[in-house]
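Archive entry: two folds, one per protein. Generate the first.
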Amino acid sequence: MEIALLAFFTAGYLVLSGADFGIGMLLPYLGRSPGERGRVLDVITPFFLADEVWLVVAVGFFAGAFPVLEGGFLAENYAAFTVLLLGWVARDAGILLRGRVDRAAWRTGCEAAVVIGSWAVALSWGFVLAGSTGSAGAAPPVLAAAVAAAAALFCAQGLALAALRLRGETSRAETGKASGGDALRTETGKTSGGEAGVPWRRARRPFGALGERAAYALTSAAIVSAGLAAGSRLPLAEHLADPATLALLTPAAAILTPLLVGTQVWLWRVLARPGAGTARTAGAAGAAGAAGTTEAAGVAGTAGAAGTATS
């Protein structure tokens, strides 16, 4: 039961946040102008902090249910997790601060933070996953290939989500143009229903005739398979916590699971609904801020547990 819960939380994080980081990694490709990059980032802005809650839950459950293994795992991958956290903070700061100052140089700096931070996180996760499968001790070319494969999965997941989410925006822009209404306005002041579809076409180009939903399903299956393959190499069953701890932790996690899934589904249904406007985006920012507060508390608690286990 404990291993299944850990696998579920980890898979949820990889699918949801993996797409967020993939979009950040490919931001210069998907958006060639400030307006296009703004629309691309709008794909993940209402969701990315809520997606990160899955990692907080996964790490917290890992620390509680497998305390000895968790301490050793973090210690062995200390350098990778340090780079990961720095990239994570830089990516989040870039997204949250990009619209605070109306200057081209500020936006460019924030976008650079998003791209660099996303690549740092993806490559760090690639190294961690490669180490879990035993590739970390292999020859450098093998390790580099494993890390590159993990980064490619993040990129593919990001492209699939961008194609799925930007398609609705493109359809709305083209509908408004056909009906004589205002087309989508970009940050540079240009308006064009055709321009709104350019990032979408770039996102779906690698998938050819494959539909957006099918592409997202396939990339999600691939990234989950990679995560499960890495996790299956860890000696989880041999490092379970004592029965008294599991008697409290496992039922609590089982109760939390439907709440976590329900909240995620609600966010996708409400905030991804066609016609979502500025007011709804502002509401998403408030919800994301609350999620971020919970996330920070979870990270602090996990760090304390890791320190205790390592010592």
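Generate the second and append.
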Amino acid sequence: MLKLNIFKFVIFSVLLNASNLSCKKNNDTNVDNDTKNQSNDVVNHILLGNPSNATYDIVNSENYLLEQSYFISSYSRNKGIANWVSWHLEQADLGEAKRQDDFRANINLPNGWFTAQSNSYQNSGFDRGHMCPSADRTSTVEANSSTFLMTNMIPQAPRNNQGPWAQLEEYTRTQIRAGNEAYIISGTYGSGGIGSQGTITFTLAAGKINVPTHVWKIILIIPHGDNDLARIKSDSRIIAVIMPNENTIGSNWRDYRSNVKNIEANTGYNFLSALSADIKNSLVQKIDNL
């Protein structure tokens, strides 16, 4: 009987640990001390799926799952930037905390990996472009500060970053203030962007940081509520954009609307994998027209 009870306890412990991991609670000790206090710690920022099957294994250095308290990403060691960054956004994330502007290296990258510094993009003609926006994390100083880790940045053409990309970010927040919540994922592909210097640039920091040709974003919007996966339907609103990482880009984000299927074709990723096949197949083909 004692052996049976011990066996039951071991099985229960394994299941409990797996459950805690799937909920993405902040139990990982490999987390920046600046970002341990998350406002929505029971939210799974990759609730809709892990599009590249990123893992915590450092051997998987081109698709390394890098978790912060307020977003989660797939990181590429060779590119020196994230492949994608994913986060959940709701009204509770939007508060009064000011923009911290404390750009800094992410000291929690594995030992021996190149670590972008706050000045790694200096004089390059490219902005330190946020993937998870600063203004999406204003509930606390800690939340806002978390977005200034350099692993959340990409070399982004200034007129892209400050133009249609920023407009889409603000439009998304207006949807949240109107009573919705959103699951968002953004990323890059390609190599060779055109910044403010007007010439094509492939890398920064002596070849350690890739400059992408394109940036993309997927935003799935649903009314605020509970049991989110069950509430996502084939008619749920989804916005997908693909924008060239060029300083000659136009100013209207709507001009760059595409669909998830095109982003999958350009990246090789599998988005919305947590949804049923019927719902996913409907959503990935939709092009937003609102």
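Annotation attached to the second fold: The mean pLDDT is 89. Residues 266 and 289 are 22 Å apart (CA to CA).
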